[in-house]
Amino acid sequence: MSENPAQSGVRRREFLKILGAGTATTAAIGCSSDRVEKLIPYLTQPDETVPGVSNYYASTCRECSAGCGVLLETRDGRTFKLEGNPDHPLNRGALCARGQAAVQGLYNPDRYRGPMIRRNGKLEPATWDQALQLLSQRLGELQSRGQAGSAVFLNRHESGSFPAFLDRWLAAFGMPAHLSVDPLADHAVLEANHQSYGVAWPSLSFSAARLIVSFGADFLETWGASVPQQLDFADARAKLEGAPRFVYVGPRRSLTGCNADQWIACKPGSELAIVNAIRGTGSIEQAAQASGVSAAVLQALADEIRAAKPSLLLAGGSGANGTELALAVNALNQQLGNVGTTVLPSQPITSFEGITPAAEVAAAIERMRSGEVQLLMVRGLNPAFMMPAAARVAEAIAKVPFKVSFSSYPDETSELCDLILPDHHPIESWGDAQPIPNVLSMQQPGMDPVYDTRQTADVLLQLAKGSPKAAAQFTAPNYMRWLIANHPGGTDAFTASLQKGIGSGTVERPAARRAPVTVAKPATPIDQTTGDFYLVVYPSPILGDGSGANKPWLQELPDPVTKICWQSWIEVNQKTAQRLGIDSGDVLRLETPQGAVEAPAYVYMGIQADTVAMAFGRGHTAYGRYAQNVGVNPGALLPVGFDPRSGGFVWTATKVKLTKVGTFTPLVTTEGSARQHGRGIAQAVSVDELGKLGTEQEEHEEMPGDASHAYLPGLRSPLASDATGEIGSSVKRKEKGMYAPDHWSQMAQRRWAMTIDLARCTGCSACVTACYAENNIPTVGAPYQEVHTAFLHGVPGGNILKGREMNWIRLERYWEGGEDGGDFEARFVPMLCQQCGNAPCEPVCPVYATYHAPDGLNVQVYNRCVGTRYCSNNCPYKVRYFNWFGYGEPARPQYAWPERMSWQLNPDVTVRGKGVMEKCTFCVQRIREAEHRAKMENRPVRPDEFTTACAQACPSKAIVFGDAADEQWSVARMAQDRRAYHVFHEMLNTFPAVVYLKKVNHPAPAAPAGA
Amino acid sequence: MTQRRKWAIIPGLVALAAVAALLSAYTGAMQQQQQQQAPDTVITERGAWGYSAASSPQGRAPVQPIAFPHPTHVQTLGMNCLYCHFAANKSTDPGLPAMSTCMGCHLVVGPNRPAMNGRPARVSEGITTLTNYWKKKQPVPWVRVHYLPDYVNFPHMRHVNAGVTCQTCHGPVQKMTRVYQYASLNMGWCVNCHVGNVNPAWKARYDCSVCHY
Predict the structure, then answer these.
(1) Is residue A284 in a domain?
(2) Are A376 and A490 contained in the same domain?
(3) Longest dimension (CA), chain B
(4) Same domain assignment for residues A195 and A331
(5) What does the pLDDT read at residue A722?
(6) Which residues in chain B are closer than 8 Å to A735, comparing Cβ atoms?
(7) What is the ipTM of this complex?
(8) Using the 8-state DSSP alphabet, how is residue A48 labeled?
(9) Tens digits of per-residue pLDDT, A90-131?
(10) B6 contacts in A (CB within 8 Å)?
């Protein structure tokens, strides 16, 4: 490159001159800041609000039936973040990904703006007066014709006051009680619990158990109240030596299964035979025959269960014999003396009382088909999506002369209705929940309604006023007043409860309807269906029953097991795939007599050899821009059949015919490699070797990736040490600035750090969504966001296929073992910016946009960044993310927050522009806020006073954040744990501020250590 | 690279230069035109800091929907800044008085002003406009004078509580008949104080991440 300047066409100097002129001109055009911005004052300042300071309203999460307590962080009249309520007995401050994403339902751009009336076959906007008049008139007609008794009200199951209120209202109009539908409910377990214990859901004490055996119960996902279960499970596992061993039995290794120490792959529906063999009511050989598991493994399991006292046995899955299985497991728990120690019927979870069996909902749908039903009302549910295609729900609903939907979103069901009375989002609503006996979880609005919606309870009250008979019963002006009037303890108690979000007392419940279920269509046993493979359809741990599909955070959150987002996939066993010549991404076709679906294959070790699995939740044909035509719905394959004992819908119901289509669809995955390749990213230790960790520290220092214990206390970065003259003391600069520990700013006396306990982490990914919510991270995978490549245009997740995902904290999942088809281990590692003391990204930045702050943060200055991406290139952890497009600019097609999603943006965090690198900085806005608060109160920041968004949300309490230089902070103690290690530090000398604590494995008692 | 290709760069660069020159001439003309057309923005006075730069709208004094007389309220009536900008000592955001704060006094102090201090009786245009907004239950759409980009976090309370007067950054607002941007608000101007280069010598942390996140 040594060219003679005289020979080159343009001299360098001249070139720079021209370039300079061009830049100056651009600057003059680009930076004119004569923008006119308005400042709009309040008419009257609301009480207790200070601009720029958040208010927190204690409320209840309604994303599933559990009823966790949340705090709605609200500023300037907008709720922008949900956090778990630390005082709530159920979730103790934690919140799952679905709960975090509730705000995206609130500000969803596809929400109904107001009531709609079907005129000439089309839904058209109407006023509330018109809409209510229409419904009032129809109700009057129905009553005068004496047909009110045929009406059907389908309501999303919830605990608290509303169900009884609704039944009273229906009765006042002569209509039958509502059906309380929970699409995620495990009816078999509910029914068995009622039979065994007289309650729907006993509390489960994972911490008290010595052994946990789950027969398909995904208690970290959708089975029961996942957050409290996860909290308790993590607490149990954190006991290390005293922790319970966990065995998962089932055809598919779910997220819960991935947290187990051992997975026993059995055939779908054969769990009952195994349980019976353990109970002694069946033989091991029979069970081995039925399940395909070797008799030795089953014998070992049986021995282990009998030896471990107490143990906790759980049943789940939804096969045709689900209730029998659940009853057998309950009986076994009883037999082993677990009831009262690990299974606590005396402390029930009341959230799941009163769920209507799916068979009754199906019966109502059959009544619609026969033309009996004159009025259908649906609230919070989407039966046209959640029932399998074979149930032909849409067709049945169409037969109803007048259909009313209270849905807030244009989903498959509401599009069939004649009248839409959009309900408030739970964040805009009043209410309560009864998750635990004698505990009321209060629900209050965080803000005024976003659109012209009305709370259904208020609509019902207003309708009652128009009816002479009902008016006398419903005198309250609105539902809030009704709640106050019926609150145990009256107005004062209500006001006091609202402050904490929790009240005491019991509210009226609808009359118990525990009549024996009549099932018109008992499910055919799965072995009697035709096909080559068993089909397991499971509810997505992220999207739930599909109601999460219109929230881009959840669509973009990779499935915890497969790491696939924005897409549906078919899980195929690796050996089967090898036999059939299937590779991940090959499009497969599944066929049953009911229908067929096509989706790419995901070759997975964690599925039984003759089983394929699909997640339920995607494949909407309506439901807004984020859900429509994203993925496929495996419901198309399922026959309609119910468990004859519980009336629950049978999901694991059929075999399928599998064919290779011959095309290829790349998997939208955020995963690089599923194996660690000896890099020591996710480390684990056997429980037997735990004792050695403390004593043989010196040897462990030599292990790749192990922590250098010498530098752990205070996690002093070499940079800070250098500034103090400790390292390389030959060159002593006079002025060390804020890096000097005795500097007046005292900034260098802190060292913000984090510990992540992998013994607790379950991989649930709640931290990822919490980070999206806190840090204004754009989602990039929506179909409308990929506009540049012809073959990816409009493809969901198109940008992610190009590696443009933006998750500052990601959940890495690594497989260990299992290459030979045997059992394997899953390890989850939350990976975020390690805030390296000796960061590889810092020296390569040509503009000093990333540098090390004296308090230990690896700072990214967005306004300095020019987007060279050198830092990302040099980051060994790959935790820096680049804004390839103007995701924050409304005029661009990639805009991530279409109206009014932008209302969710955290006002404390910059929305990054195009061409800027971004990453985690330990929620620096929270650090600064805590410092401001402390300074205002003239005190130092208190130990553990605040934490990051990921740590706050974590339902396993695996993440601890704080100042590692101060012994009073928990993180300083945690960082010195014997299990501590740093990722890549020993190899790359990065001095990370994130300390991981090794996962602890509990091998089978008989097996040699380390197996 | 061949000799010929090298020479081929020349026309390209010439074209680039021409475009640059044209653009610069055009923007210059546009700016002149804008200044002629927009008497709303009057540059009244430069701040005393001397840190102005081309990118700062220092001195900008936009016309407000109501010609709010700060001198009357502060100097004549002796009101404290915090009476209206009530959050300046407790929040990052200084707070803008709610309409009800204005009307708290102006329900009594109506548009008809009696003769006072040697001034004849008159009808106050400003108070008339204010009461009209209030009657319509509309807020006054004030025009923002001091603007910081989104990537800067400026906590007002930290400055106010440290004893930095409002006038230090906002200038003699009590004397301004129309509020203008007194200081440049450029980063150099901020840092100058943070490192203690001013008299009295305030000092504060000057790490990037103190303000930029």
Answers:
(1) yes
(2) yes
(3) 87
(4) yes
(5) 58
(6) none
(7) 0.85
(8) T
(9) 999 999 999 999 999 999 999 999 999 999 999 999 999 999
(10) 7-10
CB B207 to CB A18 under 8 A?
Answer: no
Q: Structural domain of residue A76, as residue ranges?
A: 55-105
The fraction of chain A above a pLDDT of 70, given in percent, is 91
Residue of B nearest to A927 (CA): B210
**Which residues of chain B from 74 to 133 reach within 8 Å of chain A, CB to CB?**
87, 90-93, 95-101
Tell me the DSSP string of A940-955.
PPPTTS---HHHHH-T
* Domain membership flag for residue A830: yes
pLDDT tens string A837-851: 888 999 999 999 999
Residue of chain B with shortest Cα separation from A919: B213
Confidence check: pLDDT of B13 > 70: no
- Best mutation target among B19, B22, B134, B209 (most A Cβ atoms within 10 Å) is B209
Do both A423 and A476 map to the same domain? yes
Is A480 in the same domain as A582? Answer: no
Minimal CA separation from B76 to chain A, in Å:
24
* Torsion A138-A144-A147-A152 (CA) sign: positive
Mean pLDDT of A130-155: 95
Is the pLDDT at B28 greater than 80? The verdict is: no
Phi and psi angles of residue A788, each rounded to the nearest 5 degrees, phi first: -100, -25
- Determine if the peptide bond prior to B178 is cis (ω within 30°): no
Q: Which residues of B touch A51 (CB under 8 A)?
A: 87, 91, 93, 95-96
Give the CATH number, domain containing residue A91. 2.20.25.90
**Contact assignment for B101 to A924 by CB distance below 8 Å:** no
> Which residues in chain A are contacts of B65 at CB distance < 8 A?
none
8 Å CB contact between A832 and A994: yes
Q: What pLDDT score was predicted for residue B183?
A: 93
Q: Left, alpha or beta for A818 (phi > 0: left; psi -120 to 50: alpha)?
A: left
The CATH number covering residue A452 comes to 3.40.50.740
What letter represents residue A584's amino acid? S
CB contact under 8 A, A910 and B8: no
**Looking at chain A, which residue has its C-alpha nearest residue B150?**
A910
CB distance from B195 to chain A under 8 Å?
A: no
Instruction: Say if the Cβ atoms of B210 and A928 lie within 8 Å.
Output: yes
Q: Which of B205, B206, B211 to mutate to test the interface with A (most CBs of A within 10 A)?
A: B205
**Interface contacts A/B by beta carbons within 8 Å:** 168
Q: Per-residue pLDDT tens for B44-54?
A: 444 434 444 45
Residue A16 belongs to a domain: no
Average pLDDT over chain A reads 90
- Alpha-carbon distance B125 to nearest alpha carbon in chain A (angstroms): 20
CATH of the domain at A820: 3.30.70.20
Do A471 and A339 lie in one domain? The reply is no
CA–CA separation, A562 and A856 (whole Å): 34
Q: What's the CA gap between A921 and A66, in Å, rounded?
A: 33
**Whether residue A693 is found in the same domain as residue A804:** yes
Number of residues written out for chain A: 1011
Do A854 and A757 reside in the same domain of the chain? yes
- Are A155 and A180 spatial neighbours (Cβ–Cβ below 8 Å)? yes
- Domain end (from A504, A538, A561): A504
Query: What does the DSSP 8-state code read for residue B128?
Result: H
- Taking 80 as the threshold, does the pLDDT of residue A389 lie above it? yes
Between CA B177 and CA B68 the distance in angstroms is: 7
Q: What residue ranges do the domains of chain B occupy?
A: 1-37, 40-68+145-213
Q: Is residue A41 part of a domain?
A: no
- Total structural domains within chain A: 5
Contact between chains at A33 and B93 (C-beta distance less than 8 A): no
CB contact under 8 A, B95 and A34: no
Q: How far is B147 from chain A (nearest CA, A)?
A: 8
Beta-carbon neighbour count of residue A523 at 10 Å?
Answer: 27
Q: Are A936 and B161 within 8 A, CB to CB?
A: yes
Name the pLDDT band for A991 (thresholds 50, 70, 90). confident
Q: Which residue of B has its CA nearest to A921?
A: B213
Would the pLDDT of B43 be above 70? Answer: no
**In this structure, are A308 and A379 located in the same domain?**
no
Tell me, yes or no, if the pTM score tops 0.95: no
